[in-house]
Amino acid sequence: MEECQISVVVPCFNEEEVINTFHCALMWVLGETRRSFEICYVDDGSRDSTRAQLRALAAADQRVRYLSFSRNFGKEAAMLAGLRMSRGAAVALMDADLQHPPGLLHRMLELRHHGYDQVVARRDRSGEGVLRRAASSAYYRAMGRCMDVDVVDGEGDFRLLSRRAVDAVLALPEANRFSKGIFSWIGFDTVSFSYHNVSRAAGRSKWGGRRLLNYGIDGLISFNSRPLRLVIYVGLALAFAAFAYALWIAAVVVAHGAEVPGFATLLIAIVALGGIQLATLGVIGEYVGRIYGETKRRPLYVVRETDESAHRAGAVPA
Ligand code: UDP
Ligand code: MG
């Protein structure tokens, strides 16, 4: 393939209802740019017809490539696979559900031409539930306090990266990938513009409440050891308070003799300390678990097939 100017990486998980609409919209926009391009679809172990559709799209146009996982490995793994696959001088990351309007590529490319290595489309939160809005804004405020890297509300994975930025992302060896943090960590000149939030064209979001909460914890823990530090401070402060309290009780006993009441105080102290210890253990456990995960050195995904392997196996007519 001759030199490719733009790669678009699209992670897809059970997107059979939108994938065709999305593909048409994207092809149209890419055609308008009048540049050489490729689309790298990554099927994240979909259980519907997504894989078959991607196979057909790739067979019909050699600028369309795809790779399919053996099971669902998560969006982070899918994006990583897509970035590894991409060959373009600039690489855009985009969701398949049309929540990342393909038309914004024009604006991104224009900004890329001004020399920015990362062009981020930041969505506003219009049309989202009050509860979800409040939760994410609280989360980002807490993240800002706790993390070593900047993570901005609404700045997601929808972005255009220069080749050197992509190479920087790919050079990070960690298995626990939190790309919001990684994109911020690699640095380079970054610019962002905001766009109006759109809701999913069809299908369902794969992010339920629990998944979001887990994602939040991942983000917090992936990028520093501040939670550990905090826990140490709290532990020290409590131990100090308990010691002071013990001294005071000793003084009271010496002055007035022992009294039986105080049982409640004792119980509260035990329960409170027990709770804090459990929380502390949880935080430490998170880090240990992560160390365990990293030392296993497992690949982040397993490939079932790619457009090339499908061709070789004769799954699609050449
Ligand atoms: N996705 C994926 N693997 C997953 C979950 C999601 O590749 O395990 C893809 C999905 O197909 C879509 C994008 O990631 O292209 C965003 O997912 P979704 O729309 O469910 O997330 P939301 O927009 O609600 O944050
Ligand atoms: Mg979506």
TrEMBL record:
Topology with respect to the bilayer: Multi-pass membrane protein
GO-annotated cellular components: plasma membrane
GO biological process, one term: polysaccharide biosynthetic process
Lineage top rank: taxon: Bacteria
Subcellular location: Membrane
Signal peptide positions (record): none
Keywords of the record: Membrane, Transferase, Transmembrane, Transmembrane helix
GO MF terms, alphabetically ordered: transferase activity
All residue ranges annotated as the Glycosyltransferase 2-like domain in the record: 7-168
Transmembrane residue ranges: 230-251, 263-288
Main location: membrane
Similarity field: Belongs to the glycosyltransferase 2 family.
Protein name: Glycosyltransferase
Record organism: Streptomyces kanamyceticus
